[in-house]
Write a structure and sequence with these properties.
Blueprint (H helix, E strand, L loop, with lengths): L7 H12 L4 H11 L5 H14 L3 H14 L9 H12 L3 H10 L2 E2 L2 E2 H7 L7 H12 L1 H7 L7 H14 L4 H11 L14 H7 L5 H6 L1 H6 L9 H10 L2 H7 L3 H12 L8 H7 L12 H14 L8 E7 L8 E2 L2 E5 H14 L2 E8 L5 E3 L8 H10 L7 H10 L6 E6 L7 H14 L4 E6 L17 E5 L5 H9 L4
Parallel strand pairs: 3-6, 3-8, 8-9, 9-10
Antiparallel strand pairs: 1-2, 4-5, 6-7
Length: 487
């Protein structure tokens, strides 16, 4: 960093995190990079900011991974500041929470808790926490032997014995008793116990909503979500209908739409030749279709999650390619129709505060404005778009129409499944004309069913043009960040 501006990368990083549009992994990478700045004040500020961003075990290991990526040479950035951060992560936790976390996720990215505890020389005078650390590094038997004369450590050692017992449990009845007594979730259970519906019935209520969604395939594979009367399905529906749990999860609409698409396709792989051959094998077992109430519950959950979209007020003109190919699958999630991904993106931007003008190019080569209502859902908007008879998309014509109608916009988005035959030079000329006569504008070209665009529609010398190929759960966030000048 330049002299006098050493804190600038950190300030940008913290501002991005507060804005809610940044990728958490990118923030962790930049934070690790900030620790390379040769300024004590900056390093102290990074270590002060880290505890607020790295709370869960998953985030902790993720940061350690990126930190090693940045400090890839000895001593690997393991100075006193980093050792204090690692120590604080372990020592700031309640002994029972720590015991559960270090057994729930023992290692990630080739790092284990034992590695990090030894590396940072984590020490404490608290007998309960010391017992947990000893058990992680040397094993539970060694911890029991060393702390047998410490009354303060006995309850936590008994708890860790229960954790070990459930990790190695073979009887579902025993597992259920341990779950009910100690609030263990399915992450602590051995795989063979997941074949018992009763175990799921007791464990689901201990899972956060994200955890429930990530385990839907596991439950469906065992047939626990097929029948309306299934107690497991009932517990799942109860979880996804809980508005407080949804708010705490901070799930975005795209996260839930992705789950819906997978559930509707029964988690089938893309219909490639290799997969078709696999399905014809006598050993192939198709995942049973979940009951329709699960889809209905997820759709309602998606509508509720629209309130979680970060607020980015701006004016947006969107042109949708409404030809029949709009029903093709998206690159990145083959079971999701491009039209549904487009509909969700439009609604999410609108819920985020964008003033949207929705258009398409008709078969008569004339621009048409399409209705867009605040009450629209992904299904209703998608259905309307499918019924529109559209012509071949022409981004240059769209810009000319907007310019001649003096339609002021901060951002123009062209959405298509895979149309790539664009008169790029004409588009770039029209963009410059619009900017010089109407107002500054950014341009995004989205090809949701395409893996790549060659040549690119965006002019490589124009930082205000962007191409997006395929669809992912971060698509809307990327559009909002681009509109807000975050990159």
């Amino acid at each position: 960093a330049e002299a006098g501006r050493v804190n600038l990368p950190l300030q940008h990083c913290l501002a991005a995190e507060r804005g809610g549009l940044a990728d958490k992994r990118a923030i962790m990478l930049v934070l690790a990079g900030c620790l390379k700045i040769d300024c004590k004040q900056t390093k102290t500020a990074v270590y002060n900011a880290l505890p607020g961003m790295v709370s869960t075990t998953e985030e902790y290991f993720e940061f350690i991974f990126y930190h090693r990526k940045v400090f890839n040479k000895r001593p690997h950035g393991m100075g006193s500041g980093m050792r204090r951060f690692i120590s604080k992560w372990y020592l700031s936790q309640d002994p029972y929470d720590l015991a559960l976390e270090v057994t729930r996720i023992k290692s990630r990215h080739k790092w284990s808790h034992a590695d990090l505890i030894k590396l940072a020389r984590v020490r404490t005078k608290d007998p309960a926490v010391s017992a947990v650390l000893k058990a992680v590094v040397r094993g539970l038997a060694a911890a029991q032997e060393e702390f047998k004369d410490k009354p303060e450590a006995q309850p936590i050692l008994e708890y860790m014995t229960c954790v070990k017992e459930i990790n190695q449990c073979s009887e579902p009845e025993v597992a259920i008793k341990l779950i009910d007594k100690h609030s263990f979730d399915v992450e602590s259970l051995p795989t063979h116990l997941l074949n018992h519906a009763k175990v799921w019935e007791h464990a689901i209520s201990r899972l956060p909503v994200r955890g429930v969604l990530s385990h839907l395939r596991t439950m469906a594979k065992r047939g626990f979500l097929t029948n309306e009367s299934s107690p497991v399905l009932g517990k799942v529906l109860q979880s996804i209908r809980d508005p407080l749990a949804l708010a705490a999860s901070k799930l975005q609409p795209a996260d839930i739409l992705s789950v819906i698409a997978q559930v509707e396709s029964c988690w089938e792989h893309p219909p490639t030749t290799a997969h078709k051959a696999k399905t014809q094998s006598p050993n192939y077992v198709k995942i049973p279709s979940p009951h329709h109430s699960l889809i209905t519950g997820l759709q309602k959950m998606l509508v509720s999650s629209l309130s979680h979209v970060p607020k980015v007020p701006c004016s947006v003109v969107i042109c949708v390619d409404c030809r029949p190919t709009i029903t093709k699958g998206c690159w990145g999630l083959w079971s999701l129709k491009a039209v549904k991904a487009m509909s969700l993106t439009i609604l999410a931007l609108m819920k985020g505060g964008a003033d949207i003008t929705l258009t398409t190019l008709g078969e008569d080569k004339l621009m048409k404005q399409l209705p867009l209502n605040t009450t629209d859902t992904v299904e209703t908007l998608g259905s309307r778009l499918e019924k529109v008879k559209g012509g071949v998309m022409d981004p240059a014509l769209l810009m000319r129409w907007a310019r001649e109608g003096t339609k002021r916009a901060d951002l123009v988005i062209c959405m298509t499944d895979s149309h790539a035959e664009v008169d790029r030079e004409d588009l770039w000329t029209e963009l410059e004309l619009y900017r010089s006569t109407v107002c500054p504008v950014k341009h995004i070209y989205m090809a949701l069913s395409s893996k790549s665009l060659f040549p690119t529609v965006a002019n490589k010398t124009d930082p205000h043009m962007l191409d997006i190929c395929g669809w992912g759960q971060d698509s809307t966030r990327i559009i909002q960040a681009f509109a807000k000048d975050c990159f």
